[in-house]
Design a protein that fits this description.
18 helices; single chain; Rossmann fold; six-stranded parallel β-sheet; alpha/beta; seven-stranded mixed β-sheet
Amino acid sequence: MKKEKVYVLDTNIILQNLQNIKKLSDNGTNIIVIPETVLLELEDKKKLTNELGFYSREFARFLASAKVKEVDHRSNYKVAKLYKDDILIHIISKDNYDSAIEQHHISESNDKRIIEAAQAAKDYYKGRKVIFVSIDIYARTFALLGNIKTQTLHDDKSEVPDFEFVKTIHLETVQPDALHFRSIGEIDKTYKPENFCYCFESNSAKSLYAIIANDRIVPIDDSDFIPLLVKPANLKQKFFAKAIISNAYNLLVIDAKAGSGKTLISLISAMNLIDNGWYDKIIYVRNSIESIDKGAEIGFLSGNDEKFRIYNMALRDAIEFIAKKQIKKKGNADNPESIQSKTKELIARYGIETLWPGEARGRTLSGAIVIMDEWQNSSEKTSQLILSRLDESCMAIVIGSNRQIDNLYLNKYNNGLTLLLKQSKHKHPELSMFAIELEKSVRGKFAQFSERIFEKTDDK
């Protein structure tokens, strides 16, 4: 029989995903304690129009649907006991707090008051294991100093599996015509769904590169990229670009280092599909620390140009790069006026729109290639929100880097990018997936230098 535990939740556990409450409850085996200060922090975020505001309102709806069992008054605190289905929610409020509220250090003050509620829980639930759960290492440190057991989310300690997106196999001979559109299962008996790309090598040192679409071998040839104004710079970029322009996949997920060209390749390949009449427009969705902290202000900016400049600089830079390429190809001078004019022309020609996640609710996106950038900063809920807006006529390209997580409520184990990467290990009846990792920076000598210096591993 499982031993009952008491989990005291920090605010970030609820803001990360409301399902955390259900998971920690373990079908009613454990008691979930919400400190009063957590309620106040959630109440403060309810009016936000961004992702955190949504989660705060979602919790408020959950709490409103719960039933009150009793309110237990103690000498210095009160415990309100509620339940919803098999989930037991206890809210602890102290009559007087030792920690004063300092407006200049409001977050630290709230953390200390939350820990005081956790200490009251230790007194109230004597004989039971009381555990403070937080994503924030500083809050957990305060708890340890208060002699309270702590843990982070179980997801934080789960393993991100190894992926074999690119596989190399040796053949006696490599004949492109014989391999073209052949079942990969006939060639590779150990083929797995995550093997999206292949390098076929032979004794003659001749190689063939291919992607796997619908379990069939689709060879890559440099002629595939002639229509692209910006050509892939390395093999993995070729795999990625081919996967897009083949139009064989509904959902593409890319984990890529900074400077690896993920946004540029996504954009230039998406433009090719529009040129060929497969889609009508490109919708760029970026979820980053800016969209979490400043989403409300961004939502009220007037005009796409300002949104491009402040909210979507990566997209703007990619479009301007393509504009310069087009101008140079035609032999024109790339002065600021001509670049600006060509940029506007590209935006209009390819129907390029930007979408902040908070604007997606209630919308249905059709005939679009949806580029979801910086997705390591998106939660499971935001991923579901955006993907559920896409109809049958859309393609989704999800790009990000687990090396650059800015969202305080997420880490490399539980963000939207990792969640979708994990799904690449399986076949899905609803759609066709592709995934790859881009590890090589193509930005130039400074990116290569910083990668070599700052990302080197300690061999000691």
